[in-house]
Amino acid sequence: MAKFMDVHRGMKGVTADQLREAHRADLAIEGDESVHFEHAWADPESGIVYCLSEAPSAEAVQRIHERAGHPADEVHAVPLEV
Amino acid sequence: MAKFMDVHRGMKGVTADQLREAHRADLAIEGDESVHFEHAWADPESGIVYCLSEAPSAEAVQRIHERAGHPADEVHAVPLEV
Fold first, then answer.
1. What ipTM was reported for this prediction?
2. What Gene3D superfamilies does UniProt report for this protein, alphabetically (chains A, B) (predicted)?
3. What angle do the packed helices A58-67 and A16-29 form, to 10 degrees?
4. Which domains does chain B have, with CATH numbers?
5. Which residues of A sit within 8 Å Cβ distance of B?
6. Per-residue pLDDT tens for A19-74?
């Protein structure tokens, strides 16, 4: 298992309810790929959402986001953390 | 105070020691701007570093990063979090 940060763009105007609902949709199916989405942070002004997860691969992260209806624009392994 | 995510690019090959040292340099002066850098995550392969902070403004975040020798390429307020 490894840590990943993924980035969604084009989410201008995203609301707290929409972020919560999107996260809930990920959590509902993440177990199918042994992914766990830990946190998400959103900037409604620039339309960027960052998601931090633990997962076996970037592809597994993306498959969950795709099935939940919101594919990521970038998925990066972040093996270093402070 | 608000939450911010900032992004540094061009850090290919960054090591755990370099990330720790860069974070330490931020922590040493962050109080001057009432900023607190909570976490940083790095992808040595793509050269991207993400930093999560609490701060009074994006400008305050950037001023600390600049003085510490590593200006961010983007600083985004992230008022929404799950």
1. 0.92
2. ORF SCO4226, nickel-binding ferredoxin-like monomer
3. 120
4. 2-77 (3.30.70.3090)
5. 3, 5, 14-16, 19-20, 23, 39-46, 48, 50, 52, 76-82
6. 999 999 999 999 999 999 999 999 999 999 999 999 999 999 999 999 999 999 99
